[in-house]
């Protein structure tokens, strides 16, 4: 156990602790010193704080890797430059296109996009509902003398009212039911791929690819169980439904930073990679000496020469050039030419 | 990875001088289920202006893969057999670091899909004891998948080499290139 603590990344622990303290402070602030905090959700809050620590820790360790650090620094420099407005707008547009709507997945397969989008939007909406509720940022109340109107409060401020039994109330209080349905449909579509696609069957792993889907389905089904219980069973199985759901959700929260779901947070780096490419194109392209064609931004090629050196690779040539100055086609041809020369020198092209 | 019947005795041998540029390997590669109908093998003219020489390139599955090292998203994984797998689709951010840093020019970037893809030695086939698609169709045996003993019998004047020098960097690979006897390293200037 002591060894585990000794191997922890100190910088990441500090950043993760700061993240937890900030979230804790926001919980106190948003719930008005816990006045609006629902004690029934304490286990969810602890699970969420653990997830915040884990995500911040892993993100910090991830950013310390040389290639990640390079992209992070470059994209932050480009974003917070004189072109801030244009790059911020570009990033915002891409955020909706590629993070919220995940349109890039449609170019891999349309069915896959549909399944992933349903699953992701269900999860994101569920986050948007449950996190503010768990933190006490949103709560609903009835007031004395008026038992037909719900008062919604956000951060302790009144944010709207709606009548009990109205369509609005039905939609709002079943928000997580709608999310569960979206997640179940999406997860089943993705699960179908995983059990029928030969390529996936050969390369997938249970913990990285199947377990996440099973957990999402389990969370959604147990969540629907709670609604089913109070709608059709008069709350007779409430304890069982509530405890089962809490166990699955908390397991998921604890696992969130370590498993496949971390890609939700990693995916934001795609925005940085896009800025990097765009700024690189503005600065100028690299031309391959073999093909005579532009193949990448000069910024990218130069950065990779430095990066590979930092990582212990030395592709410098004796004449001052670098193997990475060649395009992929140029590299393949260079290899073929070297092979040809070696065969020629031996006097036998085959054999 | 699931349980496999990957046979560590089997190896990949490439002889670019035998490539006749027929593109049969490209067609076969697109049948590999791990690629999703995208061909990952490269066949190109070496210098079309002066020669009809063609070359063929599969992923060489480096022992210390540069592509995986430069990946900012930890998306490229090398398994216990030394097979370097194509990018993990949930992690790859489509930055192209691997495309530009690979010394063999192997990974491809699918621009619209924001995804890097590359040969993973037909893992759906090799993991159950079958040969990679490209090696099963190559008519000139520029691509051969079998045992060292088999290739030594077929090519008595050649030797499999898995060491390459690019500038100051030595790269060792899982895949071999057939070279004249006595050669230990293919030096690329």
UniProtKB/TrEMBL annotation, chain A:
SUPFAM superfamilies the UniProt entry points to: Respiratory nitrate reductase 1 gamma chain (SSF103501)
Keywords annotated in UniProt: Membrane, Transmembrane, Transmembrane helix
Transmembrane segments: 12-29, 41-59, 117-140, 167-189, 210-228, 240-258
Domain of life: Bacteria
Signal peptide segment: none
Protein name, entry field: MFS transporter
From TrEMBL, chain B:
Keyword Electron transport set for record: yes
Segments passing through the bilayer: none
PROSITE patterns given in the database record: 4FE4S_FER_1, 4FE4S_FER_2
Domain named 4Fe-4S ferredoxin-type: residues: 10-38, 50-81, 82-112
Ligase in keyword set: no
Pfam families: Fer4_11 (PF13247), Fer4_4 (PF12800)
Keywords: 4Fe-4S, Electron transport, Iron, Iron-sulfur, Metal-binding, Repeat, Transport
Protein name: 4Fe-4S binding protein
Biological classification of the source: Bacteria, Pseudomonadati, Bacteroidota, Cytophagia, Cytophagales
